[in-house]
């Protein structure tokens, strides 16, 4: 089946949002807020079975060439704001006692390809990951709320975690997708802020659960091209 046109949720702030418009003091305050949001989102990812043990990682862009990322080797359900690690786009640690996620290269690839993106999230939600393990994209237009938000979700080819293979495997999808399945691994979402990226992960997993359940009932019925277009026109 051909991919239907992807939606763009993230036509928001420029790459430097919101810090370029504010002073250093505001930026420091905002960084603390972002760290607190990261703690809350980590808790939700863990509680909703989207990460097991120390899996998953996410980051938020503070400025050009600067992100704060979750630490590696820590359950995302039990983080504190001080655990986050500040890194530059080359992966060098700028601040923090821990080590940034081993998947930081994947995050940087997203920020470099999509200046509209401010937050990146990687998790292993069970049903979406099952599609990735089965080698199946979630690119059938079956849900009215997914068509205008995520659009079709492609499956990136397998890549060894933490290597340069991972950013290479997703690069071609970044301009055309709002979420990506990673073969035999998990899922990637990104958005205009941390909550946007997190909610996309929820929508991704929910749509995978619906798609799987519909199969047990005889198969999902696709929306027609005309119905898809009408949903996109409503945006
Ligand atoms: Zn992973």
Number of strands: 8
CATH fold group: L-fuculose-1-phosphate Aldolase
SSE string, helices as H and strands as E: HEEEEHEHEHEEHH
What separation lies between the terminal Cα atoms? 24 Å
* CATH-derived architecture: 3-Layer(aba) Sandwich
The CATH superfamily label reads: Class II aldolase/adducin N-terminal domain
- Overall mean pLDDT stands at 89
Largest sheet: 8 strands, mixed
Helical proportion?
Answer: 25-40%
Total count of helical runs of at least 4 residues: 6
Task: Estimate the global geometry from the Cα principal axes.
Answer: globular
**Whole-number total of structural domains:** 1
Q: Quickly give the structural class.
A: alpha+beta
Name the poorly predicted regions: 8-23
Ions, cofactors, ligands: which are bound? zinc ion
Please explain how this structure is put together.
With 235 residues, this protein is of the alpha+beta class. It has one domain (19-234): Class II aldolase/adducin N-terminal domain (L-fuculose-1-phosphate Aldolase). Helices cover 34% and strands 14% of the residues. It contains 6 helices and 8 strands, in the order H-E-E-E-E-H-E-H-E-H-E-E-H-H. It has helices at 24-47, 104-113, 126-133, 165-170, 194-216, 225-234; strands at residues 57-63, 66-69, 85-87, 93-95, 119-123, 155-156, 179-182, 186-191. It has an 8-stranded mixed sheet with strand order 4-3-2-1-5-8-7-6, sandwiched between helices. Strand 3 and strand 4 form a beta hairpin. The chain starts with 23 loop residues before the first helix and ends with a helix. Residues 8-23 have low confidence and may be disordered. Bound molecules: zinc ion.
């Amino acid at each position: 089946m051909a991919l239907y046109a992807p939606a763009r949720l993230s036509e928001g702030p420029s790459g430097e949002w919101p810090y370029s418009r504010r002073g250093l003091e505001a930026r420091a305050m905002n960084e603390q807020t972002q760290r607190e949001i990261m703690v809350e989102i980590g808790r939700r990812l863990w509680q909703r079975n989207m990460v097991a043990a120390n899996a998953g990682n996410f980051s938020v862009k503070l400025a050009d060439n600067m992100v704060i990322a979750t630490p590696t080797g820590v359950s995302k359900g039990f983080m504190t704001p001080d655990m986050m690690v500040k890194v530059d786009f080359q992966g060098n640690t700028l601040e923090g006692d821990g080590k940034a996620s081993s998947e930081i290269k994947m995050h940087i690839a997203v920020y470099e390809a999509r200046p509209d993106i401010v937050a990146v999230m990687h998790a292993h939600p069970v049903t979406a990951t099952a599609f990735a393990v089965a080698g199946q994209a979630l690119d059938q237009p079956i849900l009215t709320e997914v068509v205008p938000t995520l659009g079709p979700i492609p499956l990136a080819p397998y890549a060894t975690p933490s290597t340069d293979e991972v950013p290479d495997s997703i690069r071609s999808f970044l301009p055309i997708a709002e979420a990506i399945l990673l073969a035999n691994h998990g899922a990637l979402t990104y958005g205009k802020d941390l909550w946007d990226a997190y909610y996309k992960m929820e929508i991704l997993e929910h749509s995978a659960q619906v798609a799987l359940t519909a199969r047990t009932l005889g198969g999902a019925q696709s929306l027609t091209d005309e119905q898809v277009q009408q949903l996109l026109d409503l945006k």
